[in-house]
Amino acid sequence: MPRMVAKKPERALAEQWRDILALHARTQCELDRALHQHGLCGSDFEVLDVLADGGCAYRVQEISERVHLSQSALSRLIARLEKDGLVERGMCAEDRRGVRVSLTAKGRALHRDALPVQRSVLTRMLEASS
């Protein structure tokens, strides 16, 4: 019978971290797959969700802090969403160097349609991991 050896705390911590990363990767893949029917990927939806949640325009920096993308990756994503007519950019009234992003009516409708799909995937994946 194999002898049970207690894991060192550092090793257990590293394994817990890897489990979190694996859950994130699996969930992101599931989100991308499920949201594809709406023409979105998980990152697209996250930006729409942040904008819909606040109900107002956000500065790009504020969005990047909530969706965990670099500003350059977020700028490319926003440009694509803008090209698709889902968001619009405008000058920031309090800082003319800043840019604010807001949902268009089309973006709000797409978010509303995709929201149950995204929440269903999150529920399934996160409950399965508990």
From TrEMBL:
<dbReference type="GO" id="GO:0006950">
    <property type="term" value="P:response to stress"/>
</dbReference>
<dbReference type="InterPro" id="IPR039422">
    <property type="entry name" value="MarR/SlyA-like"/>
</dbReference>
<keyword id="KW-0805">Transcription regulation</keyword>
<protein>
    <submittedName>
        <fullName>MarR-family transcriptional regulator</fullName>
    </submittedName>
</protein>
<dbReference type="InterPro" id="IPR011991">
    <property type="entry name" value="ArsR-like_HTH"/>
</dbReference>
<feature type="domain" description="HTH marR-type">
    <location>
        <begin position="13"/>
        <end position="130"/>
    </location>
</feature>
<dbReference type="InterPro" id="IPR036388">
    <property type="entry name" value="WH-like_DNA-bd_sf"/>
</dbReference>
<dbReference type="InterPro" id="IPR036390">
    <property type="entry name" value="WH_DNA-bd_sf"/>
</dbReference>
<dbReference type="GO" id="GO:0003677">
    <property type="term" value="F:DNA binding"/>
</dbReference>
<keyword id="KW-0804">Transcription</keyword>
<dbReference type="GO" id="GO:0003700">
    <property type="term" value="F:DNA-binding transcription factor activity"/>
</dbReference>
<dbReference type="InterPro" id="IPR023187">
    <property type="entry name" value="Tscrpt_reg_MarR-type_CS"/>
</dbReference>
<keyword id="KW-0238">DNA-binding</keyword>
<dbReference type="Pfam" id="PF12802">
    <property type="entry name" value="MarR_2"/>
</dbReference>
<dbReference type="InterPro" id="IPR000835">
    <property type="entry name" value="HTH_MarR-typ"/>
</dbReference>
